[in-house]
Amino acid sequence: MLRLADRLDAINRITGQTVRWLALLLLAAQFAIVLLRYVFGIGAIWADEIVLYTHASLFMLASGYTLLMDRHVRVDIFYAKWSPRGKSMLDLAGHCLLLLPSLAVIAWWSWPSIRASWAIREGAISVGGLPFSYLLKSLTLGFCALLAIQGVALILRDLVRLSGKEGTPDA
Fold first, then answer.
1. How many Å separate Cα 160 from the centre of its chain?
2. Helix, coil or strand: residue 70
3. What are the backbone dihedrals phi and psi of residue 143, each rounded to the nearest 5 degrees, phi first?
4. Contact 131/124 with Cβ under 8 angstroms?
5. Which of 1, 3, 117, 144 makes the best surface tag, with the fewest CB within 10 Å?
6. How many other CB atoms are found less than 10 A from the CB of residue 153?
7. Which of 101, 77, 84 is nearest to 158 (CA)?
8. Measured between alpha carbons, how far is residue 104 from residues 70, 115, 141, 142 in Å?
């Protein structure tokens, strides 16, 4: 089970290490927009949408990596004091009862909009913007898939931890 969890982790590790470069693109694009607008008096809606698309891509595609690195938001009032077994039980319940069902609902309800958007190759959000709204909407499914993959990897690790076979080769 741990080998499978490692393989699932690798998907988000590679994705996260790839999309993190979007942060530099986001910074450069926003800097260029500010420079062009306030120094040269030039503005373009498509440039603003580059920032929107880049930010959305970074956020949505790095979510699984964030969960892998345990950098998601957590309220540790009680959790920090619990035993590893207690933490595993709570994590397992949270992943099975909250994370995966929530992702399924998001994917289910967003799919008709994404499908319709692809069917007509939905264009720009604003006049003069980037003509790729269908790609932007598709990030929702990427978000759900990557977060679900990481959720399954964490569930496998929690099951191994709770079974007490964490150090065995069979795990």
1. 25
2. coil
3. -55, -50
4. yes
5. 3
6. 25
7. 84
8. 21, 16, 10, 12
C-beta separation of 92 from 40 below 8 A: no
What does 112-145 look like in DSSP terms, one character per residue?
A: HHHHHHHHTT---SSTTS-S-HHHHHHHHHHHHH
Q: Is 40 helix (H, G, I), strand (E, B) or coil?
A: coil
**Half-sphere CA count of 119, side-chain side, radius 13 A:** 6
Three-point CA angle 50, 54, 56, nearest 5°: 120
State how far the Cα of 126 lies from the Cα of 38, in Å rounded to an integer: 21
- Would you say 57 and 139 are in contact if contact means Cβ atoms under 8 Å apart? yes
Going by the DSSP 8-state scheme, the letter that residue 165 receives in this structure is -
Phi, psi at residue 101, to the nearest 5°? Answer: -65, -40
- Contact criterion met (CB below 8 Å) for 67 and 151: yes
Nearest one of 51, 59, 54 to 33, comparing CA atoms: 51
pTM (2 decimals)?
A: 0.89
140 in Cβ contact with 114 (< 8 Å): yes
For 107-127, the pLDDT digits (tens) are 999 999 999 999 999 999 899
